[in-house]
Design brief:
Blueprint (H helix, E strand, L loop, with lengths): L11 E3 L1 H5 L8 E4 L2 E4 L11 H5 L7 H7 L3 H8 L2 E5 L2 H17 L8 H26 L2
Parallel strand pairs: 1-4
Antiparallel strand pairs: 2-3, 3-4
Helix pairs in contact: 3-5
Length: 141
């Protein structure tokens, strides 16, 4: 296993090609929340089985990790396998989306997008107009 990167300002940066080169039981890197972990030694200990982890290697596994609903203990355990960071800004954007999606599915509130409210209003406005027109049409007879 590589040296841990936690607390090290010179953390190693990994590329997608690095992740794709470590997708086996003999060498398994996992990318979660923009961080790269060497989980090779953990494969046999994983409660869900090693194949679950192997199926998420070679790509960003953040969404898979979050959808499972790992405990705080599992998240802390992951820290000891940290070997570096992922080189690529698109992961940060995707990670932010996954965290928001997970929070919403867990029932937590997030700052709602004002565009969503406007879209909902635009969809309901015609229905409101029809109901008001029907009310007045029926009320006059």
């Amino acid at each position: 296993m590589c040296e841990g990167a936690e607390g090290n300002g010179d953390a190693k940066l990994y590329k997608l090609s690095d992740l794709k080169a470590h997708t086996t039981e003999k060498s398994c890197f996992l990318l979660v929340h923009g961080k790269v972990y060497d989980v090779t030694d953990f494969l046999d200990e994983h409660p869900g089985g090693y194949d679950i982890i192997l199926n998420t290697t070679g790509r960003d596994a953040t969404e898979d990790f979050e959808e499972i609903g790992h405990s705080n203990a599992a998240r802390e355990m992951l820290d000891k396998y940290l070997i570096g960071n992922f080189e690529g800004s698109s992961v940060s954007d995707k990670t932010e989306q996954v965290v928001k999606k997970t929070a919403v599915s867990a029932g937590q509130t997030t700052n709602s997008d004002p565009g969503t409210l406007v879209t909902a209003f635009k969809a309901l406005l015609p229905l409101l107009i029809i109901l008001v027109a029907a009310y007045f049409a029926l009320g006059k007879k």
